[in-house]
Amino acid sequence: MPKILLAEDDFTMVSLLKTLLKMEGYEVIALSADEDVIQAVHKVTPDILLMDVHLFSQSGLDILDELRKDPATNAIRIVMSSGASVKEECLHRGANGFLMKPYMPDDLFKLLREVLAA
Q1: How does DSSP classify residue 49?
Q2: How many domains does the chain have?
Q3: H or E stretch including 114?
Q4: CA 35, 37, 38: angle at the middle one, nearest 5?
Q5: The CATH number of the domain where 41 resides is what?
Q6: For the purposes of burial, counting CB atoms within 10 Å of the CB of 18, is it exposed (0-12), middle (13-18) or buried (19 or more)?
Q7: CA–CA separation, 78 and 20 (whole Å)
Q8: For 1-118, where are the E strands, in sequence order?
Q9: What rounded mean pLDDT belongs to the chain?
């Protein structure tokens, strides 16, 4: 069962994603809004980090950069999401995938399968 670490600051979105992903057979660990994402990645070692670009007090892009610089975390699969058009920047900085919000659950599941298979 693939493990997904969820870093998202919208409580409704977290609740919805946890339910949908569990129904699809994923193990889901959701971080609280201001939890240290990098520390959580080290602790949890997820198969995929699903992370919003804009978190309350943290920048998903800065976190992405940090994870890619650290040899212990640079191979972790990271899927970014945002309501802003930042796909190219996310992919350029090392994300494995990007979802523009709002997205359909099927688009999420398809991308997760592609990222896991890569």
Answers
A1: E
A2: 1
A3: helix 105-117
A4: 130
A5: 3.40.50.2300
A6: middle
A7: 19
A8: 3-7, 27-30, 48-52, 77-82, 97-100
A9: 95
Domain ranges, residue 40: 3-117
Nearest-angstrom CA–CA distance, 52 and 57: 12
Tell me which residue of 115, 114, 27 sits closest to 75, measured CA to CA.
115
Q: Tokens for 16, please give them.
A: 């919805």
- Which residue shows structure tokens 């699903």? 50
Give mean pLDDT, residues 37-50: 97
pTM confidence score: 0.96
Length of the chain: 118
In this predicted structure, what is the pLDDT of residue 33? 73
Q: Which residue has the tokens 């959580």?
A: 40
Q: Residue holding tokens 């990007």? A: 98
SS3 51: strand
Largest CA distance in the chain: 34
Give the integer Cα–Cα distance in Å for 78 and 76.
6
Token pair for 110:
């398809």
